[in-house]
Amino acid sequence: MEPNSGANVDIQRIKKAVLHDIQRANDFYTSKIEPKLRLRHQIYEADRQYYKSRFKHTSSQSDFVSFDFWSMVQWAIPLVMNSFFGGDDAIVIVGRSEEDVPRAEVLKELVNFQLMTQNRGFLVLWDWFSDAFQYNLGAVKIWWERVEDWQEEKFEYADVSRLMMLQSDEWCEIMYANGPDMFGMYQVYYRIGRLKSNKPIIEPVRVTDLRWSPEAKSLSEANFVAHKQAVSADHLRRQARNGIYDPRAVEKAISNEGNGGVIYGTFETELNDELDQRPNEDDNARALYELYECYVKLDINGDGLLEDAIVSVVGDELLRVTENPYGRVPIFTLSPVRDPFKVLADVSLSEIVGEVQTIKTALMRQLLINTVNLNNARWFINPNGVDLKDLQENRQYIKTKNDPRTIAMPFPQNGLAPWTMNLFEYLEGALEQWTGRTRYNQGTDSSSLNKTATGISLLQQASAQRIDYIVRVFAETGVGDVLRFLVELNQRYIDQPQVIRLKNQMLQISPDDLKGEFDIDVNTEAGIGKRKQTIENLQFYLGYLAQTGMQFGAVTPGEWAKAAQKLMLESGIRDPQNYILDPEVVKQQFFMALNQQIQNQAAQEAEQQAQAMMNGGAQ
What we know:
Strand order of the largest sheet: 5-6-7-8-9
Structural class: alpha+beta
Shape: flat
Strand content: 15-25%
Mean pLDDT: 82
Distance between the termini: 105 Å
C-alpha cells in the first residue's frame, strides 16, 4: 500500500482525504486546544506577563506571583510515582491456563526490563505524569524498533553441503557464488548479519505536537490522529533508503518545501524561544521539514469498510501509505480530570487551582505594596521651608527656614482590612477541598483536630483518597493500556531467542515463552499511606500473630520467613534473601525436622514397647 503502488489503492483520493483531515485538525487545535494549553502553562509557571495583563495597576509596583498550581503538581507527582514504584513490581501478569503460568512470569520480567531499563521508564512516566497534571493531557508513543546489522563480509571455498547451509541461514546473504570447479568446490562471497536491536521504544509526546479530529471522544476511537514532528532532510532520506518512505516522494517534498518548511505556533515559540532563532541552513541535509505521522481510518481499497492505516505527509506529498500493523493509534494519553466525551476536558486542575492562585497573587501584591508604603512612609513637604537637596541626599543635618513641625506632614495611609488574613485562610481551605492537598492543619483554630495523631491520620487519609483516585484512573487508562500493548508487541515481534541481563542473571527469552493468554493488572497497592500501614500490619503479624500461631501449629517458620522478607521489601531493602533464607527452604527444613522428630519419637516408643514386652516375658 505504498504511494507508488497501484492495485485497489486510489492514492489521490487518500491524499485529498488526509490533507483535509490535517487542515481540520490544525484549525481545531489553533482555535480550541492551543488557548487552553497556553492558559494552563501560564498558570503552572505563574507567568508574570499573564498576571501583568490581569492586574495592570498593581503590576507597576509589584511582580509577585503565587505558585500554588506548580507546588500542587510537584506534591502530587511523587505520590503517584510512589504508587507505581514504591512497592512490588508495578506490572502483574497472570496466565489464564495452567501452562501459561510460567510464561506469565517470564513475560512480566521481560516487560519490566523493557520499560524500566531499556526505555528509562521512571523518567518517561515522570514526564508523562507531569504533562497530565499540567495540561490535563499527557501522551507517550510506542513503536517497535528492529535494527539489523549486515556489515561483516566473508569469502570462502565451499562444497555443496556448505553452500546449502549458507543459503538456508537467514542471517547469511550471499552476494555471489561461482562454480563448481573440477573439484566440486564453489567460490562464495557473502555477508553475515545480526539482530542489533529488537525492542519497543517509548517516548513522551508533547501535547502541542498532537492533532486529532474535532469530533473524537478519545484518541483510540478517532478517525484521524497525527503526530507532528520537525525532522531533517537527512532523516527523510534515511527512512527512504530503509524502504519506509517513497524516495521519489521524499525528494519532491524536499524540493517543494525549499530550505525547510516548519511552521511553529505562538504557543510553541513561547515554550521554546530558540525555535525562532534557528537560521536557514546552508546544508540541505540539516534543513527541517514538518512531518505529519497520521493514524487514520479510511476506506483504502474501496470496499466500503474502514481500514487502519499509517500515512506520512510532508507538505502536500504522501511519503507513505501503509496498513497500520498495530490496529490502533500507538499513542497513549492520561488525564487526571476525565471527560468521557472529549480528548481534552474543558475543566482541569489548572483552572481549579488557578482561580485561587489568581486571587492570592492579587491580594499578596496589595499586601506587599501596602507594607512597603507603611515602612517607607511618604510625606507632604513645603519646598519653600526646607532645603530639598538635603532631603534628597539623605544628609544628617537638614536646613529649614521655618519650624520643622510646620513644613512636613505624613501622607495618610490606610492599614490592612481586618478580614484580609481570614480571606487568605478561606482560600487555603478551598484549595485543600478542591485538590485534596492538606497542610496537616486547619488554620489557626486552637481546637482543631490536628492536635492529635488521630486527627493528623484522618487528614492524611482524606488527602490520600483524591490521589488514590487519580492513581486508579491512570492505572485503568493510559498505564494499563501501555502494558497490554507491550505484551502484544512482544508476542508479535520477538521471533527468535534473546538473552537479557536482569538482576545480575542471564534470562533467555524465546518466542514460545511469550505465547498464551494473559490477564494484565497494574499494581497500585503501594499507594499513598498504604506502605506505612502495610509495615505496621506486618510487624503486628510477626510480633504477635505468628508467635501465637506457631504454638497451635497454624503458622510455620516458612510463613514467618515470607512475612519477614515482605517487611524488608516494604522497608526499602531490595535484597531480603541475603538476610533471611528462602521461605520455601525454611518451610521444607521445618517439615523435614518435624518428620524426623516424629520418626524418632515413634522409634523410641516402639523400642520402649519392645523392652516392656521383653521384661514382661522374663517375669
